[in-house]
Please model this.
Amino acid sequence: MNKPKLVMVGNGMAGVRTLEELLKLMPDFYDITVFGAEPHPNYNRILLSPVLSGEQTLKEIMLNEVEWYAENGITLHMGKEITEIDRIKRVVRAADGTEAPYDRLLLATGSNPFILPVPGKDLDGVVTFRDIRDVNLMIEASQKYKKAVVIGGGLLGLEAANGLMARGMDVSVVHLGEWLLERQLDRTAAKLLQQSLEDRGIAFHLQKQTAALLDNGSGRVGGLRFADGEEIPADLVVMAVGIRPNYELAEKSGLYCNRGVVVNDTMQTYDPRVYAVGECVSHRGVAYGLVAPLFDMAKVAANHLAHYGIGRYVPAATSTKLKVTGIDLFSAGDFMGSDNTEAITLSDPMGGIYKKLVIKDNKLVGACLYGDTADGAWYFRLIREGKSVAEMRDVLMLGEGGQGDVGHSGQSKVVGMPDDAEVCGCNGVCKGTIVKAIQEKGLFTVDEIKKHTKAASSCGSCTGLVEQILINCVGGAADVKPKSEKPVCGCTDHNHGAVRKVIREQHLTSLRQVMDFLEWRTPDGCATCRPALNYYLISTWPGEAKDDPQSRFINERVHANIQKDGTYSVIPRMWGGVTNAAELRRIADVADKYAIPMVKVTGGQRIDLLGVKKEDLPKVWADLDMPSGHAYGKSLRTVKTCVGSEFCRFGTQDSTQMGIDLEKDLTGMWSPAKVKLAVSGCPRNCAESGIKDVGIIGVDSGWELYIGGNGGIKTEVAEFLAKVKTREEVLELTGAFLQLYREEAFYLERTVHYLHRVGLDFIKAQVVDNLENRKALYERLRFALSFEKDPWTERVKEGVARHEFEPLTV
Ligand SMILES: Cc1cc2nc3c(=O)[nH]c(=O)nc-3n(C[C@H](O)[C@H](O)[C@H](O)COP(=O)(O)OP(=O)(O)OC[C@H]3O[C@@H](n4cnc5c(N)ncnc54)[C@H](O)[C@@H]3O)c2cc1C
Ligand code: SF4
Ligand code: SF4
Model:
C-alpha cells in the first residue's frame, strides 16, 4: 500500500522535533522527505554560542546525524532550498529543480536575522549570528583581525560578544536601548550584567544608533558611524538586532501570512494540508523565538499529522538565560511587572546579586535573577503551575531550599517534584518522561538518559537534577561518577585531584597560571571553578598565592553572612564560647546604636547580631572591637565547649580551656568546607563532640579524639581517631588532621565525605602512626596560619576592600 507523503521544508529544531514526536506516535504512517537549505543535518542552534566561544565543537552539537534519517526511512535533501510550493499539484520544488510531491506539507523555515538597512551593510566582514556558516565566518575573522563590534545588546548579541572575546578579539557592543537585554532584564539587573561584562573587557556604547558601516578602502568594513557623528573602528561587525519569521515561501504560495505563517491552535495553515511550526509561525498574532514553545508546537502538529486530532497549542510562560560562562542570569514570565502587580526584590549590587519576583493575585507571574540563579527552575515551575504562593510569600525569596528539607545532596527535592515538572528547559523534558525512560529502557547513566530523552543534552545546566532522578530510581546501581572523577566544571576536563596535583607539582601560584597550564576552555573560569582554584592555591602556597576576593562567594568577600532580606549577620569570635561583661556591654551598645533587630545565641554558643546593613558592617565591627567569628566562611567556625572540670561535678578535664586553646590555635584557618569542633569534659558529652568535624572528649587519663562527625541534614557520627594524654598532643593531632584535610580534600568536601573517600586507616597512618608526618603537617598548618590576619580588623583599621561596603549607584 502506498503511504501518504509528508514533506518537510526546513531541517531545523522545530521541524525535526515534530518528526520525532510523529515517529513516536506513528512510526510507519508516512513516507517522509525533508529539505534543508543548510548543508548539515539537524543541529542544536542554541549551542552555536558555546561553539563560537570554543567551549563546544560542531560535532558535539549535532542532534540528528545523517544515519538517524536513514534509520527512520526519511529521504533527506541537505543544502537544497525550496523555492516554490505548487499547492494545486501538491508539489514542492527546490532551487536546483528537485521536486517532491506531498499529501501533507510541514513548513518549518525558521527566521531570518534582521539586517539594519544602513549604508555599508553588504561590505565584507559584516555578518549575522544564525547558523554554522556565520559561526565559521566569525571564527575565521577572529584569527586575522582584532576589532569586533556587535550591534545589538540582546541575548544573541552578548553571546556573540563573549564568544569573540574568548577568541581573542577586542569587542564593543553597540546598543540602541538605555540598558542591555531590556526584553529580559530590568535596569538594575542589566547594570550588574554590564559591569561584569565590562570587567571581562567588553566595551559598551549604549543609546547609540548606527547610521553607516564604513569601508576600509578595500571593500571590507573598517568602522561604524553613529547617528551623532561619532565613529569607531571595526574589522568585523556582527548584526544581532533581532529576527524576522521566514515566511516568504509560504506567502508566495498564497498561504495567509501576517508577520509569520498564520496557523490555528492545531498548527494548521489556511490550507488544511499544510502545517507550520517553529519561528516562521504566527499564532494568535505572536511569533516565538525560543525553543520551548516551538517544541510544544511540535507535539501538537505531530499529534494532528498522526490523525490523533486532540492536541491544541496553548502558549505558556517562557524562560531565558544568558549562555555566557561565569555569568548567571535567568528571567521568566512577566518579570517587568505593571501597575497591578507587586514585586519582591533582593538587591545586593556589591555582592553581584539581584533577584526580583513579580506577584499578581497571590501568584508568582515573573522572576528575574542575576548572580544566583540556582532556583530559576523552581520559580519557573511556580509561574507555570500558577498556584497561590500566599503561604510561602515571606520565604519565597529563599528559593526551594528555604521551604523546608531539600534532603542530602538534593535527593528529596527530586522526590517532591511532580511528574510533569520540567527538568530540562532547553528540550522541554519533564521528570515523568525521564523516570519512564529509566524504568522502561533500563537506563543506568546520564549519557543514556541524554540519548533517550534529550534531557541535559543542550546547555547541560540540568545535569545535576537528572543525576538525582537517576539515583532516586535505581539507587546504588546508578552509574554516576564520584566527585573524585568528575571534571571540576564545564570549563575543564580535569578533576579536582588532578588540579590539586598540578598546582603542587608545577608550583602554580595564580588562577591565570592554572588556567593556562591546564588549558581551561573559558577565558576566566566560572562561579564553580574559580572558588575551588582559589582555595587550592592559597592552601597549597600560603604566603605566595594571593587570595582573589572575586573568586570567593559573597559571604567570604564581605566577611558576614547574607540573610534572606539582603541584610547581614555578624557573629564575633568568643573563644571557646566564653564571654565577659565588657564584651556583652559592647554587643548591647552596638545592637542599640545600629538598631539591630535580632540578637540571638547560636547553636555554636556564639552571639549573632542579625539584620545589619551592609554599609554599617565596618562600623559595627569597629564598635564591637572583637575578632571575626568566621561564621560565614569555609573555615574554622566554632569550638563548642561544656563547662568541664572547673565547674561541673562530673568533669574529668578542663574542656573549656582546651576549647579556648584549640580555637586560638586554629582561628583564621581556611578549609575546603566549614569546620566545627567541640570539646566535652567527660563522656557525658554535653558539647556534642560526636557530631563535629573534630570532637574531643575528656576521659580520666587524657583525651579521646573523634573525626568526621556532622550534625547537618544527615547526621553522621564521628569516628574514633586516637587517645592522647596532653594538651600539646591534642593541639598537634587536631591540627595535623585538619592540615591533611586542607591539603587533600576537594573544595566543598566536608570532613565526613573526605573520611569516607580516603578511609580511616589512611588518616590514622598519616597522623597517628607516623609521628614525623604528624609534626610536619602541624608545622605546615602553623606556617599557613602565620599569614592570616583578622579580616574585620584589616577592614576597620587598614581600610582593606573598602569599596565592598560603599553602595554602587545603579
Ligand atoms: C546563537 C543562537 C543562540 C540561541 N540560544 C537560544 C537559547 O538559549 N534558548 C532558546 O530557547 N533559543 C535559543 N535560540 C533560538 C533557537 O535556536 C530557535 O528558536 C530555534 O532554532 C528555531 O527553530 P526553527 O526550527 O523554527 O528554526 P531553525 O532552527 O532556524 O530551522 C529552520 C531551518 O529551515 C531552513 N530553511 C529555511 N527556508 C528554507 C527553505 N525554503 N528550504 C529549505 N530549508 C529552509 C533554514 O536553513 C534552517 O536550517 C538561539 C538561536 C541562536 C541563533
Ligand atoms: S535545562 Fe538547559 S536548561 Fe536544561 S540542560 Fe537542560 S539542556 Fe539546558
Ligand atoms: S560533658 Fe561532662 S564535664 Fe562536660 S558538662 Fe557534661 S557532664 Fe559536665
About this structure: Residues 727-744 form the longest helix (18 residues). The longest strand covers residues 353-360. The pocket of iron/sulfur cluster (ligand 2) is lined by residues 424-427, 456, 458-462 (CB under 6 Å).
